[in-house]
């Protein structure tokens, strides 16, 4: 039956979710045009690298001290993955100190060209986005830093589920990311690299959806003023 909507205001369409704007081709074009240096992958803040790596190392040492399966006395982990690895900054400065082998997962081949499988603790080098990565074998530690904003919420949850299935008993997924400081507590889309910056609440909801629990979490201290807060979450299956 035809009906008039005279006097009834047009409904305001719900704004599109920030992650619906993510476009992988735009992201890869941006990162491919970025210099393959610490300055390039850290967006012009290379001085953050040392603080970040020290914070990660301390955070991980605490995880191991509270672990029954991977206590510090067990020595290096067998296998880790550096996901969205860029030029391998985290592998070189931290992960290769704590794991025998570190696989590199990074979609931009130019970033990984200087890394050599079998050298400096580097294992396999896989040039693919995390949305398309299916881990093979088992990992004791899967480190994700400053890259999961490149995935939509749904892709991120599916990715976490695939990684969980590849985690050794007592192993960890670590997500270390910027947190949105939006005044209304919303995720924020960044056109520059076609990514989203999520709130702490959104991260926690997505971890729960993926069947993961937070076993430790910590804010990165010592970040320069004016930058987003950075939080590390260590996750294990519920
Ligand atoms: C800010 S850099 C961080 C690199 C590294 N994690 C670090 O902290 O040094 C973001 C990285 O995410 C990568 N990236 C872009 N799209 C991605 C995707 N779909 N999956 C995984 N990584 C992606 C970029 O190529 C880039 O290397």
Automatic annotation (TrEMBL):
Which reaction does this enzyme catalyse, per its entry? N-terminal L-seryl-L-prolyl-L-lysyl-[protein] + 3 S-adenosyl-L-methionine = N-terminal N,N,N-trimethyl-L-seryl-L-prolyl-L-lysyl-[protein] + 3 S-adenosyl-L-homocysteine + 3 H(+); N-terminal L-alanyl-L-prolyl-L-lysyl-[protein] + 3 S-adenosyl-L-methionine = N-terminal N,N,N-trimethyl-L-alanyl-L-prolyl-L-lysyl-[protein] + 3 S-adenosyl-L-homocysteine + 3 H(+); N-terminal L-prolyl-L-prolyl-L-lysyl-[protein] + 2 S-adenosyl-L-methionine = N-terminal N,N-dimethyl-L-prolyl-L-prolyl-L-lysyl-[protein] + 2 S-adenosyl-L-homocysteine + 2 H(+)
Q: Which InterPro entries does this one have?
A: MeTrfase_NTM1, SAM-dependent_MTases_sf
What Enzyme Commission number does this protein have?
Answer: 2.1.1.244
User: Which terms are listed as keywords in the entry?
Assistant: Methyltransferase, S-adenosyl-L-methionine, Transferase
**What cellular-component terms does GO give this entry?**
cytoplasm
Source domain of life: Eukaryota
Q: What is this protein called?
A: Alpha N-terminal protein methyltransferase 1
């Amino acid at each position: 039956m035809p009906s008039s909507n005279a006097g009834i205001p047009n409904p305001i369409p719900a704004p599109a979710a920030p992650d619906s704007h993510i476009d992988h081709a735009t992201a890869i074009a941006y990162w491919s045009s970025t210099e393959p240096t610490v300055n390039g992958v850290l967006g012009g803040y290379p001085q953050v690298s040392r603080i970040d790596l020290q914070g990660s190392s301390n955070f991980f040492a605490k995880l191991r001290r509270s672990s029954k399966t991977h206590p510090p006395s067990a020595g290096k982990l067998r296998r880790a993955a550096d996901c969205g690895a860029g030029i391998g900054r985290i592998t070189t400065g931290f992960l290769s100190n704590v794991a025998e082998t570190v696989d590199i997962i990074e979609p931009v081949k130019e970033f990984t060209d200087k890394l050599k499988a079998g050298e400096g603790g580097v294992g396999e080098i896989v040039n693919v986005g995390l949305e398309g990565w299916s881990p093979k074998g088992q990992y004791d530690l899967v480190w994700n830093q400053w890259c999961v904003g490149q995935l939509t919420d749904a892709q991120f949850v599916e990715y976490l589920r695939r990684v969980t299935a590849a985690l050794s008993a007592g192993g960890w997924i670590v997500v270390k990311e910027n947190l949105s400081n939006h005044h209304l507590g919303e995720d924020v889309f960044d056109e520059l690299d076609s990514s989203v910056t999520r709130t702490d609440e959104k991260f926690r909801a997505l971890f729960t959806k993926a069947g993961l629990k937070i076993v430790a979490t910590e804010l990165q201290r010592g970040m320069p003023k004016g930058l987003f807060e950075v939080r590390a979450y260590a996750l294990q299956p519920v």
